[in-house]
Amino acid sequence: MKAFSASLWAEWLKVRRSKMFAGMLSVFAFVGIMMGFMMFAAQHPEISGRSPALAAKTSAIGKGDWPNLLALLVQTILALGAMGFGIVTSWVFGREFSDRTLKDLLSLPVSRPAIVAAKFFIILVWSLMLSLALFAAALLTALALPIPGWSPGLVMPAFKIFCQSALLTILLCTPVALIAGIGRGYLPPIGFVVLTLIITQLVGIGMPVVAVYFPWAYPALVSGAAGDAVPKPGAASLVIYLSTVAAGYILTVAWWQNADHT
Q: What is the C-alpha separation between 216 and 194, in angstroms, rounded?
């Protein structure tokens, strides 16, 4: 436990002193604010009518009310979250290679599984903070403007689905950490994240029957954001999803223990 605490403290210091932490929080909060403004613009066509690009975006949103905003937040955390959480994971695991600090880290009297566990815990907390920043920014903006249709009974169930979608997406970052180790840097894991996003879109649109067996589509299927055209996930979907998450974690630990770090 002391080894994990020491590793966790070291990882937190790295995050706290970096510009990456504040930068990612700012991006997610900014997206949330813009979503609130987009809903307001959808309610007032005279605003969006001055800009063809804005008019096209607000027309795609439909009615600018709370139900649409909450549904859009879930879709956003599934897409933006997958990319953002993947970047966080790439940074946490890949910076040791880019900054050439891996040997210093491994020289500490801490086991390598404890180091990996601490990194994953930091990723979990950081990613949850990004998710909450997105939701809170959109919520406060929509309340300030205001957006019609507010109801605590409407927001709380949507917030539960939002958090569930965020957590399921975060857990899929374990394979990203493995790719960061094997690729020894940032770019390979980020490329992997982009590839999984593209495949998820292709599978969800072109092969909905296959989507239930593709682990990266599981969060969207559980949340209902994939739509009614895609079959509902069953026990096999859950087993494949959990196996992917577990395999990513176990293989990451194994790589850190057995790879040649010289």
A: 12
Residues with Cβ < 8 Å from 231, sequence gap 6 or more?
Answer: 208, 209, 211, 212, 221
Q: What DSSP character marks residue 217?
A: G
**Of 216, 240, 242, 220, the residue nearest 229 (C-alpha):** 220
pTM as predicted? 0.89
Reported as a single tens digit per residue, the pLDDT across 239-257 is 999 999 999 999 999 998 8
Q: How many domains are there within the chain?
A: 1
Q: Which amino acid is at 251?
A: L
Domain that holds residue 98: 2-258
Q: Give me the helices (H) in the chain, please.
A: 2-16, 19-43, 45-48, 52-61, 66-98, 102-106, 112-144, 152-171, 174-183, 187-206, 208-211, 218-223, 235-258
